[in-house]
Specification:
16 strands, 44% helix, alpha+beta, 477 residues, Beta-Lactamase, Alpha-Beta Plaits, five-stranded antiparallel sheet, 14 helices
Length: 477
């Protein structure tokens, strides 16, 4: 009788322990999904933020806004040909939406401004914010998003610059989403303010109303979290949050049976075979935690690096630059920034195709890394533009300035050598225009940090126009 009591007591303790272990595993899995949703949201914010930054660089290009002005069309070609995002085209309009000039992919038209998909974009622009459309259905069975920023003449908004991103099939957004590791029944959506899916891991979802209405409503109200939902007799778990740009939300939609089923089934088996399933439960939690760490690391790497060259992208470069310019972090030798813009890259794309252009950019990135120290940072910030951030270390600012000039000359010589782009193509030659800006500790102690990137960019354009080698920017208080 005593033995039976002990066995029954041990069994009861085992069942209670199994249930507690199952509840703990569920909590860990829910926390993992929250972390994954947060990382995806930050990644999508960085993706669209980088696209807007690329568009912003071209709003100050000095557009005349005259209908079909040849110089405006050349500037639009530069935006489309050199952009990772706007390969589908770019359009200049007046403030009423009338098209002034356009450059379109294979001359395929984009939807007219009367398309209702532009409504969210117009609403954001009228509120003084960057504009993003809803999904636009274009010829060739394409699903597009339009990003828009005002073009100024003087201090007055005089027109709009629109860039078009393809969201399905071969577009950069689809390629970006395909890199996320999701289960076969997990759907990831970006949803606009109308509740329409603007980006998805499945092309068929794009342009349809999001089925996750409750999650979208909560995200539109500024909330983030997990919510359960029942649709067509099936229970779902939705992780949701506002992305923080143009009213977009991110939703990760998964059937409850896939989300919690394996853990709950494991809990039932634990009650039948306590010892075996306690080991399995520990293994499940360990695997989930390991997958979470791998997924977060992979997402962080994708968010901060250029997918083509593997170099740091604009986001990581800007973060490192800002950190270097704080008085407490600046080394005694200061920092130097080289802004490099390739000369003749458009001709390579036009004459040999985008594949050759991509191979050339990869080779340029590798050569730039070979011109600097391990402590220096080489980044691709968009199109054919690269930056090099030199750490002055224990040197004096004067020594850093001399090293910046030496590195600039080395880059010119290195990129001037023929570059093999493979596939039987002849080696290519390319030029580079470089703007240099050097800052010492005394420059940031004067009460205001100069815009180093703009100074180096301006110096680069002077170098490009004079064609007499790298140009140095002058830093003033």
């Amino acid at each position: 009788m005593l033995v039976l009591t002990l066995v029954a007591g041990a069994g009861l303790v085992g069942v209670l322990t199994a249930r507690a272990a199952t509840a703990k595993a569920v909590d860990v899995h829910r926390a993992d999904r929250q972390d994954f949703r947060e990382s995806v949201g930050k990644l999508m914010y960085g993706y669209f933020g980088t696209a807007f930054a690329a568009l912003q660089e071209h709003t100050g290009a000095g557009y005349s806004l005259r209908p079909k002005d040849p110089a405006d069309i050349v500037r639009l070609h530069q935006l489309v040909d050199n952009s990772l995002f706007f390969r589908e085209g770019a359009v200049l309009t007046d403030l009423s939406g009338n098209v002034l000039s356009e450059v379109l992919y294979r001359n395929q038209p984009v939807p007219p401004i009367s398309d209702p998909g532009y409504a969210p974009m117009v609403r954001e622009l009228m509120a003084g914010r960057p504009g993003m459309s809803g999904v636009l259905s274009a010829s060739g069975d394409r699903k597009l998003l339009a990003l828009a920023l005002p073009v100024k003449q003087g201090d007055v908004n005089a027109g709009l610059l629109l860039g078009f991103i393809r969201m399905d099939k071969t577009g950069p957004t689809k390629q970006f989403l395909e890199k996320l590791r999701l289960g076969p029944n997990v759907h990831l959506y970006s949803v606009d303010t109308r509740g329409v899916i603007s980006g998805s891991t499945l092309d068929a979802d794009i342009g349809r109303p999001a089925p996750t209405k409750r999650a979208v409503a909560l995200a539109n109200a500024g909330n983030a979290g997990l919510v359960t939902d029942t649709r067509n007799g099936t229970d779902y778990v939705d992780a949701f949050a506002p992305i923080g740009i143009c009213g977009l939300s991110v939703v990760i939609d998964e059937p409850s049976s896939d989300f919690l089923g394996p853990i709950q089934t494991g809990g039932t088996q634990v009650q039948v075979s306590l010892i075996v399933l306690l080991v399995l439960a520990a293994a499940v939690v360990s695997v989930l935690h390991h997958r979470r760490q791998l997924a977060l690391q992979q997402l962080a790497d994708q968010a901060l690096h250029d997918p083509l060259t593997g170099l740091p992208n604009r986001i990581l470069f800007r973060s490192r630059l800002d950190a270097s310019l704080t008085p407490s972090s600046m080394p005694p030798g200061g920092v130097a920034l080289l802004f490099c813009d390739l000369d003749g890259f458009k001709q390579v794309n036009d004459g040999y195709g985008h594949a050759a252009g991509d191979d050339l950019l990869v080779a340029v990135g590798a050569r730039l890394r070979g011109c600097v120290r391990d402590s220096d940072l080489v980044a691709r910030i968009g199109g054919d533009e690269f930056t090099v951030l030199l750490d002055g270390g224990a040197d004096t600012p004067e020594q850093t300035a001399r090293r910046a000039d030496e590195v600039a000359r080395r880059v010119v010589d290195c990129l001037g050598a023929p570059i093999d782009v493979g596939l039987g193509r002849p080696p290519l030659r390319i030029g580079v225009s470089i703007g240099v800006c050097v800052l010492g500790p005394s420059d940031v102690d004067r009460g205001g940090v100069p815009d180093v990137l703009k100074l180096a960019d301006d110096a680069m354009y002077r170098a490009k126009s004079r064609r007499q080698g790298p140009e140095r920017a002058v830093v003033t208080a």
